[in-house]
Automatic annotation (TrEMBL):
The keyword DNA repair does not apply. InterPro entries: Cell_wall_metabolism_enzyme, Csd3_N2, Dup_hybrid_motif, M23ase_b-sheet_dom. This is M23 family peptidase. GO terms for biological process: proteolysis. The chain crosses the membrane at residues 12-29.
Amino acid sequence: MQVKSLFFNKNFITTLTRLVAVICIWNFFDSNLYNRINKIYLASDLDLIVDKIDYQHDYYKEYEKIYVVLDENLGMHENNVDDVIKLKNGQNLSSGLHNYGIDSQEISAISKALGSNFNLINPGQDIFINYDYKARYVPHSTNNDIYPKRHYFKEDYIVNHIEVRLNKIEKKIYLQRQNNAFTTTVAPLQSQKQTRVIKSKINNSLYYDAIQKGVTPIVINKMIEQYSYDIDFQRDIHKGDSFEVVFEEYYDDKSRKVKDGKLLYAGINVQGKWYRMYRFNDEFYNEKGLEIKKTLLKTPVDGARISSGFGVRRHPVLGFTRAHKGVDFAAPTGTPIYAAGDGTITHYSWGGGYGNLCTIKHTKEYSTNYAHMSRFAKGVKIGSYVKQRQVIGYIGTTGLSTGPHLHFELVKNGEKINPTKHHIQSIRTITGKSMTEFKNFVDQITKKIAQNGN
């Protein structure tokens, strides 16, 4: 009765069924693996690596790759292989080469040849390497009679030469093998200038679409920096607007990019209105010869949004309506605040409801106020002379404030005016013979853009 009850027990039947299923599946895969290996092993038309089988057995401690070959004396090799190793964050040349597969003796010889130049090679650097690749089969004994004889596949990378381009100092390091050692040569980095023209619609953002089209970050940042006097990139740019840009890049004799060059021209079409700027004598001017750079910035915080404009409003803390004689830029606490223009610090301390307050006197006419800062910038004090876009403090919520923001005021002859509407004059204007040169340059840029159809 006990045997009968056990046989008809549902749990027993379920467990037995599962066990049988597992055994069948294992036998299926195991026999297939055996047949696959033997078919491969007996294939007479193969002379190198014929396949690699992944396997795992309980007498091995880790998952390994097995290479099945016809003849243990056979191997393979490839000479003069070119590749690029990009050093990741936290890597130096030694660890980068090690991760690639170069053995420790090679790395030691390379490091010794570099000497003090080793410290010039930093994360993010591209390492151009040329090597000979050799592979051989190392027999591995096994007590398992089911599987045929196996061999581990051993690889060797014999470095012929390495080139590292130090773009910042415009030099290159070249290591050449001589027997079992290396010689090092440091030489000027030779490059050739090319001019690129890119035009595109804005479908996402200026930055994103420009990157997708191949404009480099350094060029985009220069565009944004210059246009910040006239365009609010958080609010003025819309889908369907467009841009065009002409800039330089430098390439070596193997058509590899060495470094970014200068931004020569940029144009942005905002809601049908073109804003154009041309590089002339290392400054930027519009088509009329007026310098793009103004005496004062419209927005002294990067990436901020206007949370409250200039005019009458209900005060969020006091609760009654009164004139708001400034513009509030909301941004996370600690965001840097820039001086809107060159000038002298006349107030740099607590300002009552303004919290931590900074006042800069720019000219006899103009001054600016920066309120509610979390803290002041180091090295700045009353009487300090600051330059435009110099950090003077950081976003906060001190004084009468409900959240982190900058309250920015523009004062002209003692009267607070709207900084987003007021026209700020250009610093310089092109005149005389320089204007003729400038117009010729504008014509050259216009022709380049017309010739480029993208």
